Amino acid sequence: MTNIVIENVKRIIIARSPQIGQYILIELDVDASKAHNTWEKLIEMLHGHVNIKIFVFWTGKLDVHASELGKRLGKIFAELGVSLFTTEHPVNLLEELDDD
User: Fold this and answer.
1) Alpha carbon distance 46, 2 (integer Å)
2) Total count of domains within the chain
3) Is 79 inside any structural domain?
4) Which residues contact 24 (CB under 8 A, 6 or more apart)?
5) Is residue 4 part of a domain?
6) Out of 6, 13, 30, 41, which could bridge 34 as a Cys pair, Cβ 3.0 to 4.6 Å?
7) According to the model, what pLDDT value does residue 78 have?
8) CA dist., res. 53 & res. 77, Å (int)
9) 68 lies in a domain?
């Protein structure tokens, strides 16, 4: 396994949700594109090695087009085995993940 350095971390929350189980939520003080690059690297590095979902959100600008954001989120959720249909609708993912 290679090393990864995560910069600009504001906070890390480890919690449990009845819909998705145990997870780690990492808040980054960066723009969306950098947050997603970091998230993708984490998933690539940890997939198959740890049995916990990892979610990343950002406090910076949304600097990617909505369609690109949707594709990237869909790919990450598929790799995590997470579906928006695992809970009641409508879904506010940040509220769901921040439910302590």
Assistant:
1) 10
2) 1
3) yes
4) 12, 13, 14, 52, 53, 54, 55
5) no
6) 30
7) 86
8) 10
9) yes
Q: Supply the DSSP string of the chain, one letter for each residue.
A: -------SEEEEEEEEETTTEEEEEEEESS-HHHHHHHHHHHHHHHTTT--SEEEEEESS---S-HHHHHHHHHHHHHHHT--GGGS-SS--HHHHHH--
pTM across the whole model: 0.76
Separation between Cα atoms, residue 39 and residue 97, nearest integer Å: 15
pLDDT for residue 62: 93
Q: 94 CB contacts (<8 Å, ≥6 apart)?
A: 57
pLDDT of residue 99: 55
In the chain, which stretches have pLDDT less than 70? 1, 84-94, 96-100
pLDDT value of residue 61: 95
On whether residue 21 sits in a domain, the answer given is yes
